[in-house]
Structures are given as structure tokens and as C-alpha cells.
Amino acid sequence: LRVLWNVQLKSHAAECIESFESQVIELSEVTSCFHIAGNFDYLLIIDIVDMDEYAEFLKEKLASIPHIATVQSSFVMRTLKDNDF
């Protein structure tokens, strides 16, 4: 199961950005992380086995990152083309 995860940080202070980035790149489930412009600050690609694993990942790992303000998850239903970004 592939999840596209949009993240908005609470603050754009350097220490918040550095803290978030250093924590998120250590998560093995996160296969890609992009710092983006727009309504969100980051787009993460998360590959997991099923919804139970996603719920555990969200509760145990992502929720422990203190600088996250807002998230939006989108679940890939079907891949039409994937060139690994």
C-alpha cells in the first residue's frame, strides 16, 4: 500500500525544519520525502503492507514528531505510470 502524505509544520523556524527532516529520514517506511512549495511543506511517500500497519506507523512513529501541525493522507488505488519521480 502506498500512501502520499502531505505535511504542514507548526513553524518554519530552522530548528523545526531541521528536527522534522532529521527524524523523518530515519523512518524506513518513508521511501521518499520532498520539501515542497504550496499549502503543505513536505510530501512523503510511505510504503506499508496494509491499513493496520499504517495505523501503527501513524500512532507510534509519525505522531511522535513534535513539529507537525497538519497532515493529509492519500492512498494510491492504482498506479498508471511511475518513473520513481
What brief labels describe this structure?
single chain, 85 residues, alpha+beta, 2 helices, globular
Specify the helix fraction band: 10-25%
Helix count from the secondary structure assignment? 2
Q: How does the major sheet shape up?
A: 4 strands, antiparallel
Oligomer: single chain
What is the string of helix and strand elements?
Answer: EHEEHE
Task: Report Rg.
Answer: 13 Å
Overall geometric form: globular
The side-by-side strand order for the widest beta sheet comes to 2-3-1-4
What's the β-strand tally? 4
Mean pLDDT, all residues: 94
Strand content: 25-35%
Secondary-structure content class: alpha+beta
Q: CA-to-CA gap between the ends?
A: 17 Å
Unreliable residue stretches = none
Please, could you describe this protein's structure?
By secondary structure, this protein is an alpha+beta fold. Helix content is 25%, strand content 33%. It has 2 helices and 4 strands. The chain has helices spanning 14-24, 51-60, and strands spanning 2-9, 30-35, 42-47, 68-75. The chain has a 4-stranded antiparallel sheet with strand order 2-3-1-4. The longest helix is centred in the first third of the chain and has 11 residues, at 14-24. The radius of gyration is 13 Å and the shape is globular. The mean pLDDT is 94.
Element layout with pairings:
Blueprint: E1 2-9, H1 14-24, E2 30-35, E3 42-47, H2 51-60, E4 68-75
Antiparallel strand pairs: 1-3, 1-4, 2-3
At a glance:
The chain is α+β, with helices and mostly antiparallel strands and 85 residues long.
